[in-house]
User: Fold this.
Amino acid sequence: MTRFTFLFLIFTTLLQVTKISSRAAESLYTIGVGIADITGPPVEVAFMGYARMDQRGDGLHLRQFSRAFILDDGHERFVFVTADCGMMGTGVREAVLKKLESSYHGLYNEQNVMLSGTHTHSAPGGFLMHLIFDLNTMGFVPETFTALVDGITLSIIRAHDRLTGGRLFMAKGEVFGASINRSPQSYLQNPPQERAKYKDDVDKTLVQLQFEDSSGKPLGAISWFAVHPVSMNNTNRLVSSDNMGFAALLFEKKMNPGSFPGKGEFVAGFASSNLGDVSPNVRGPRCSVSGEPCDGVSSSCPNGDACVAAGPGQDMFESTKLIAKRIFNTAWEVWKGEREEVRGRIKVIHQFADLSKMSTTYVDPSNGLERMVEGCLPAMGYSFAAGTIDGPGSFSFKQATRTTNALWNAFRNFITGPSSKQVECQSPKPILLATGEMNFPFEWQPSVVSTQLAFVGQFVIVCVPGEFTTMAGRRLRRTLQQTINLPTEQHVIIAGLCNTYSDYVTTPEEYSLQRYEGASTIYGPHTLTLYMHHYKRMVVSSQQKSHLDSGPRPAQLLNDLISLIPPVLYDRSPWFSSFGDVLVQPPSEVRPGDTVQVTFVSGHPRNNLKHGETYLLVERLVGDDWVTIATDADWETKFMWERTSTLLGTSEAKVEWIIPSDAEPGDYRIRHFGHSKYIFGNIEPYNGTSKIFKVLSDAIESKEPPNGISDTNTKEE
Assistant:
């Protein structure tokens, strides 16, 4: 070998090493993940989602969690949070930012923090501030609001404290058997040539952002998927994160063996997307009494029978488990499969927008003609009151109603009737509530919403302030994909129910049928048209590096809020008993598949929400030590509370444990933890413990497999 050849080999080797190091440096981000408890008051507060005043919490099945993810490319920082709550409110986000400002002094701000709700319908309400959203909870509920704000903030703090060098990857897969379109007749209003571009009338693609540290150790994942978390129906009275929340718990249990929910290092967020017309109740709608199919357009049944869709299970708990398992199975396969590394800069832009004051050009697909369209003041249509096949409404309202009723108009006009301009603007929607013209005692629905875009390498995350339907989401993705020149529509990720909640967004064609989603599209028939114009303008502004002002400020409502939820006045134990005493003991011997129930003398659960703690423990004796087997955040347990006397202030707590098939035989006990409030105001902790019972090994056929039903994600034909 000549000296020249030797030097050349050294030079080329050094060059390759330099290139590899350069590529590593380019793809290296600073990343952090964090999780925190956000469970709201589990009893005596109505849930947010089905808008039923009688659906008030009686206990807890699955705790709510906030999962935070921080990305930093050395120039700009981005925070994404997915929270197990109905949706995100402007007031919640403002309060979170205020708390972060006190610790980080501008590092986390209005520009770079994106908060998204999973949209569970089984969590306490009263946190959105706008009157229409807090009506069923009898106003603002400070306990719910504070639980969300404190927990979301803590999850971001924990992610910040775990910042480390790492890499990002994106992957995707199809979820089958977990979703149907609940308004297929509305979807069919969209142009045939547009529908022909897609195989299904719902988006079945799950998109996953994966986080690893610089050594390749998994840190977390965000999986976006479009489905309503309404497997738990409107008869449920136990706080639950529903199908998306349980999918997250399954993923975290897989990655954090031996850890309890919310306690592991690996954080798995399952986040909402364009779920507006997507239901997990895959057996579809039927008339509840006759079992016959409902009317396809109005979702109504003869003789006032309710039109209700059912999930795949025998009851809502089994349906939740099945749907969660199907979503998790795809997420797990995606995690293990092929993936695309995320490379490039991070850029986050934010702007408030008032859609009622926007206008843009619209090309009518039916005739190709171009015309100016504008937004309307918010209003809700008649079909809003009809509810959906996931949760029917009250009275005699039907979906697809496009005419008014004199009786309901009189009721509406007694509050505030719509102006002639509003009626024309919202047409063909018959207005039931002219919310944009109703400001007593304060704003009923938001006129100003938060809009935000996060460019992460070759992907963009679009924060949308509501529930976009399947085709509405597709149009927005397609518009931004073409504007940014991205490889596929899946490179545009829609983060639903994000920063602000402003109900639904349909296509103009879907709006024309006026089913529930169209009736709840509050800024008029061209709400989507205006959003597409607005987000495109934001992208162009970012590309041109031009200044983007902050936009009009949302209304400040915190000082105007009304709360009619009574506080806990006092607790008292019955005569000759103390808090924590056991009223009903467990059987002496049980087997896997059995259900154990223990009842305790209880204080009010709202005295302490037990964030990061538990109302119950299932323990097994190992040697001389009692070892925790399950908490109130585990699927197998339920915590149920009942007020036995309002006047005397007495109550009982029932703890339920379904023994899993893999439970080890031995001695067990169940414990309850709570706080009681004395009449003079001081709150004291208490606890109680059941007698010891034996779990036997000679199991009869198990009713409850570990980690939920062993269900596969079978591809549909």
